[in-house]
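Q: Predict the assembly, please.
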Amino acid sequence: MIKEQLDKIRESALKQIGDTEGLDMLNDIRVNFLGKKGELTGILKSMKDVAPEDRPKVGQMVNEVREEIEKSLENTKKRLEAAVREAKLASETIDVTLPAKKNNVGHRHPNTITLEDVENVFIGMGYEVAEGPEVEKDYYNFEALNIPADHPAKDEQDTFYISGDLLLRTQTSSTQVHEMEKGKLPIKMIAPGRVFRADEVDATHSPSFHQIEGLVIDKDITFADLKGTLAEFAKEIFGEDVKVKFRPHHFPFTEPSAEMDVSCFKCGGKGCRFCKGEGWIEILGCGMVHPHVLEMSGIDPNEYTGFAFGLGLERIAVLKYEIDDMRLLYENDIRFLEQF
Amino acid sequence: MDANLNWIKAYVPDLNVSDQEFLDALTLSGTKGESFHRLDKNLDKIVVGQIDKIEPHPDADKLVICQVNIGSEMIQIVTGAKNMKEGDKVPVVLDGGRVAGGHDGSPNPEDGIKIKAGKLRGIPSQGMMCSIEELGSSKDFYPDAPEDGLYILPEDTEVGADAVDILGLHDTVFEFEVTSNRVDCYSILGIAREAAATFKLPFKAPEVKVEETSEKASDYISVEIKDKDLCSRYCARVVTDVKVEPSPEWMQRRLAANGVRPINNIVDITNYVMLEYGQPMHAFDLSTIAGNKIVVKRAKDGEKFVTLDGQERTLDSEVIMICDGEKEVAIGGIMGGENSMITESAKTVLFEAATFNGPNIRKSSKRVGLRTDASGFFEKGLDPNNAEDAINRACQLINELGCGKVTSGIVEEKSPIKPLNRIKFEPDRINKLLGTDIDTPTMLDIFAREELTYDEASNEIIIPSFRQDLIGMCDIAEEVARFYGYDKIPMTLPKNAPTTGKLTFKMTVEKTAREVAQFCGFSQAYGYSFESPKVFDKLLLPEDAPERKAIKISNPLGEDFSIMRTIPLNVILTSLATNYKRRNKDVKLYEIANVYLAKELPLTELPDERSQFVLGFYGEGDFFTMKGAVEEFLAQIGMDNDLEYDAKAGKVFLHPGRQAQISFKGEVIGYLGEVHPEVLDNYGIGTRAYIAVLDLPAIVPHANYNRVYTGIAKFPAVTRDISMVVPTEVTAGEIEKMIRQRGGKKLEKLELFDIYEGSQIDKGFKSMAYSLAFRDKEKTLADDEVNGAMKKILNGLESMNISLRS
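A: Predicted assembly structure:
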């Protein structure tokens, strides 16, 4: 008798739950069957009419039905909630190919990108970064670098003069002298900075440009160290596969001197318009610090040796970023700057 | 420095490498090859032909039909040329051959011009007879060529032979970049010597022997140097019975290959020796030399002299002159005079080979305004021994050409010639400097190849006089390195103790400035350090403004680049204007660069170079956008407290009501503002623009990156809003100062959220509303505590004639 009643209740409850389409209706079902005045609760209330020996059995049957209904309610609730969320997400679909909202961030100048790249390589190798004055004394720009008054190199560099022995430095090499004069050894520094030469403005010349000077002075520094250091630098800046070539050259303040070419990092050395078909690009000048230069700055060349190098910032920037006119670097057209 | 391969091979006879190999090997041993060009480029199938018969063309008045014997056969060629006759020998390009260019002298096409058999006005033509231009050269270098027409070869030329060979065009001209220390390499002999050493081949210098007559040169001429500081050696030789005529073809070809025009045998000999030895010479017609003497002395200030190009030159007392007994006959080392030049009629010639002071020649040539091949050589500072070798070589060529008789002896005066330099041979030190392990025999072999002799007894290397660049051990080390091969020297890293790499603190602050600017939307500009003094007018600076005391460049590239900037605005304003004119929208730029402030003018000591962080923009944003960027930067370097803005910045180039001086702890660190409309007009910026200038030397000492965590508040804040009516002239800064003073430590935040001026407010007043937040770190604030603070604040505001809005 009770079993039949229970079967009926279960059947009816499960059917109602199965037919439910809204979360709010589920609660009504719970109240109707499991609430204080619910149908199942009614059965429990009628337990007093059941023989005492049968009560545990009936109680168990009632609990089983209750658990079944509760489980069904719970599963259905989860299913319905998932359906609601799914419908909400579906309705929120956007066109992801619509334009981005722009963050107005400014841009670094190609000179600065190049400078920071070079600085990072040398800082990583333990170099300090130094600076020197742009308006300079003849002594630091020329004489102390083994370029005495009548030296032809003085004319070659088309110096801007100010008055007396003051001029606009033509090379960052002047910072070498300032560093050496400080009397602190060893020296391991790079010195980036602005330099000036009386060249008319055109696509490949500017009367004001930037160089980065490097100087290492210590005991037992060799030409092989110079080669190794600069080869390392070239790999960091131009890529792991780049090859370097050192050619003899002449600078008054280094001996032996060299120019360093790197295999063209645009064509890999096959020859292209950037390397003018040669497969190699001239990057910097370097050499072992001339003993007379050491001596003039109070360093004993019998005890110390060193190497120095100098490279043009714009030259590297122009090559690396394929900038076909140097004037673009100084016009500051935002359409140019935004490309970096 | 140009040098043709055929001439080099004359002294390195075993040289047998491709043009590219030659260029590459010399570059790696220190004589940098820039480029080369083959004189026979695009010259194909060109033979010597003899014109057998010339007949008129039946259908064209301007054309003729020639039967031409090319050795193996007779071919027919139709031509428009007119300067030939039957029996003439000419270069003939055969069917399928190629010439360098057209006969009109226009630029040669890259691949030349292909010649095919065909018909000209109906008559078959099996090739083309050539002008010198079609062969890639010109009348300048082949003076016997006609103005217009075929190049007629000498009568004794072999028919059917390679015409390119006969014209000396199977040759390559190399362009070398010779460094200023290698004066000896500005010569064919110098390059040949380097080539021999590079390829380890024998070097065969010309053997110079002069056949002299019994007459003494000293009977014809005497030499005196009055200013030995400017001329250390003067050698003279006399040639009699001179026949002035064209020089032989071989000499003309060598001159032509190096871009020197053949003129006549005497002039050509001097030019030939100049190219070969790197020693300029001069030839005088002895009949024009008065008093049988040469005197070398300084010119007088203001003296005039006509050089052999017919130009009158003004001299001064630093110019060295060659004079005879009465007058000047040449500007020493630069150019001869019109009054003594060689003409066809010269019978007795005086050759000069001298050594002048290099720097003096360089300066004189600049002042006189005359730069010549000769001055180009002399200004490098020549070896005095070279003068003697060169003048003897010239006389040997007179012998060889049979164009005169050389009298006996050199007449000369000279300063003592320095003994040969000796350098101690220290192979260990050389290896230590290079980081190599090169053995001594290898080093000695390198020296021998370069004509440096090793004196075993003294263990010294004896340096020949032409190598003025070799002075000490490091110079010798370079010689070893370059012939051993720079590429064979190992690559190592210094083995010394490690060091710490870093930026200076100033550079770190500048880097922060760049980063903040960039995040605030500003892109980096670069400009020049020099500008026009007109900038001061554009910026409306009064005549007595201190900024006008700028450092002047004594040799500027023009007025626009003539002064060092004292005020950093021009680059940014000019760049904004450039962008504005190009219709670029919303442009924000910044620059970090120096201004140069002179302590006194004219400059006697180094100026104060001050790094300036300048920001500028037009487009979206206003004064407060700029102020935000400035504060963002100052916050990043720990300077966001104790800032003050004083509206009385006194900058004439800024809007008088929209400018502020920025101070940190009472010290001025910069300014910002809206650019004055008149300045905008001057620059051509048609919209409002804003700038800020931060003086980094004033900022860097205060900058810091120290931060201490102060905890996150655990107790709630109590906020109070106040809305007030404020007299217009009272600034937000004054109100905030008052509120902060009275609010005490518990006033955590103060924010302006509304400001209004207009119809609902009485004239002379504005409405302002602030939100105040109070917080105690230790406990929840009680209302009466806040009320007390608020009362103090309101009393303070009242004292400023501010009333609360109800």
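DSSP finds 13 helices and ten strands in chain A. Residues 113 and 328 of chain A are 15 Å apart (CA to CA).
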